[in-house]
Amino acid sequence: MAKQPMLKFVSVTRDMPTKRAAEERNKDFDEIYAEFSEAKAEEQASRCSQCGVPYCQSHCPLSNNIPDWLRMTAMGRLEEAYQISQATNTFPEICGRICPQDRLCEGNCVIEQSGHGTVTIGSVEKYITDTAWENGWVEDIVPEAERSESVGIIGSGPAGLAAADVLRRAGVQVTVYDRHDRAGGLLTYGIPGFKLEKDVVMRRVAQLERAGVKFVLNCNIGTDLSFQALRGQHDAVLIATGVYKTRDL
């Protein structure tokens, strides 16, 4: 009988990646937690109970197939784990770092409710995609066929970048406009480096540039370029400016 790779939450306790010492962290702005080792990622993924109704997935805004890529990780099949992870998530390595897992997937993990401690879903997700980048499993975006339609995207934050990815894969010609000197929006200017290092964001921006997405930076729509002029250059415009000002509810 084949060895059961999952359901080890009773014998294996919850464990997070190693936190860098404060004496080391006060010298830089790098991420607080180190990377999982392969053995530790497999061990922590094996704690998943493989629920018939996976609450982690139903409480994920993207409906990520979390139990499936946890199982692949526990079995050491990391490339397959990555393929499953990226099938529903444009930037899984970013979500693994910044998503509020404690209120979403991990907070609704069944074994957390039973008192065994949640599966460290976010840390495993981060490990899977970082490993995919290191091993060259993250392929460049190559549209099956080019299309003549053009879309202008105002804002290069997470929404703008994700839209550019999806549109470019469909062969649409994409230009992204942003008022700042670097792309990324909130990912670059709103989240500190100890939570999300900026080379992680720029790696995705570079992938989009290689795919043919054009970035027009230091361009404030309405000042440097009118919306009417922008609308005249494209077949459609997506406004993905985000929310930079608070609003009382």
Description:
The protein has two domains: 22-134, Orthogonal Bundle (Fumarate Reductase Iron-sulfur Protein, Chain B, domain 2), CATH 1.10.1060; 150-239, 3-Layer(bba) Sandwich (FAD/NAD(P)-binding domain), CATH 3.50.50. Helices cover 39% and strands 7% of the residues. The chain contains twelve helices and four strands; from the N terminus they run ααααααααβαβααβαβ. Strands 3-2-1-4 form a four-stranded parallel beta sheet, with helices on both faces. Helix 9 links the parallel strand 1 (150-154) and strand 2 (173-177).
What's the structural blueprint in terms of helices and strands?
Elements: H1 22-25, H2 38-45, H3 55-58, H4 66-74, H5 78-87, H6 92-98, H7 110-113, H8 121-134, E1 150-154, H9 158-169, E2 173-177, H10 186-189, H11 198-210, E3 214-216, H12 227-233, E4 236-239
Helix pairs in contact: 2-4, 2-8, 4-5, 4-8, 5-8, 6-8
Largest sheet: 4 strands, parallel
Put simply, the count of helices is 12
Q: Which CATH architecture of the largest domain?
A: Orthogonal Bundle
Kindly name the structural category: alpha/beta
Rounded mean pLDDT is 94
